[in-house]
Amino acid sequence: MQNKHGNEFASKISLYRQNKELTQLELARLVGTSQANISRIEHGGVVSSRTQDQILKVLGLHERGNSLSNTFLIYAKQIDGWKFASFYFPTTKGGDKIWINARRPKMVFLHCDAPGSDIKSNIVADNSVIAMEAVLAAIPNSYVTPESIYFSMDVAMKHTRLLLQSELSANILVAQKNSDNIRLLNAGMPEAYFFSQRARQITMMGKNRTQPIGNYNQQYPLEAETILFGKGDVLLMASDGLIENYERTLATRFNLQFEASAHALKGDAEGIATKFARNIEAALSSGKTLSDNISLLVISK
Question: How many domains does the chain have?
């Protein structure tokens, strides 16, 4: 018997299990199967249809449209006053990736986009996560700033850029837990959208872009922007692929969709991310296609 959902599904199960902070053994106990079966399905192996369906149920995943390969897995969490949610697609190849380190007094967010939809771009994106984790392990908390992370990652990623002939655009964000502000450094990404619940309007952030990571030179500014949050305020960052594909497949202005969702959902980061994800899923199920990788990161108070 084959994995009826395919290898993309198997990779998503692994990703979603980790996002839920479950070990294979813990998931196996919830499903009522063995750890060997969980490992087998995460590697695209053979398990019964009943086991696959039970895993979907436990993880809260359901088929939407005609293929689970069009389902975006949303990672959402609340930590010390901050709410955040994200998704990126595809999960197993391509250069879009979002990584969050919340193990320290300061939370660090990395939202990156390497050009392409192949193994090379995936390696570049994965290397950026490795570089960021190495940087955070090496510097004390008081020195954790978007600028220091960028400088250190830039040195590490120069070798990757030269070897693979690919650059890495990224947003680097640092937030103190239980605070009301976040610092954003834009390294070649589209401008971020900040919705003020009080003013009920969007302000574009991250306008002072620096060079992509691994390609820095001193002719470009390198200064993070401080963003002050009030209750219900929302910061949204999207890859250029998401903005372009959303407006093309749905014939809807991206900023207008965000403004309407942020106003209606009042700081619900997961709800806003889910709205964008489900709209794109519906377009894919109706026969539309994506011309680029897509990713979204939403942060709110």
Answer: 2
pLDDT of residue 164: 73
Question: How many CB atoms neighbour CB 217 within 10 A?
Answer: 7
Q: Is residue 125 domain-shared with residue 241, that is, in the same domain?
A: yes
Give the closest residue to 254 by CA, choosing from 300, 208, 191, 187: 191
- 225-241 pLDDT tens trace: 999 999 999 999 999 99
Same domain, 11 and 100: no
The pLDDT of residue 160 is above 70: yes
- Cβ atoms of 271 and 76 closer than 8 Å: no
Residues spanned by the domain of 35: 7-62
Query: Does 270 reside within a domain?
Result: yes
50 in the same domain as 111? no
Q: Are 183 and 150 in contact (CB under 8 A)?
A: no
Report pTM: 0.78
Between the alpha carbon of residue 20 and those of residues 15, 75, 270, the distances in Å are 9, 8, 14
The predicted-structure confidence for 254-270, as pLDDT tens digits, reads as follows: 999 999 999 999 999 99
Across the beta sheet with 169-176, what order do the strands follow? 96-101, 106-113, 169-176, 181-187, 225-228
CA distance 245 to 123: 23
Reported as a pLDDT band with limits 50, 70 and 90, residue 66 is very low
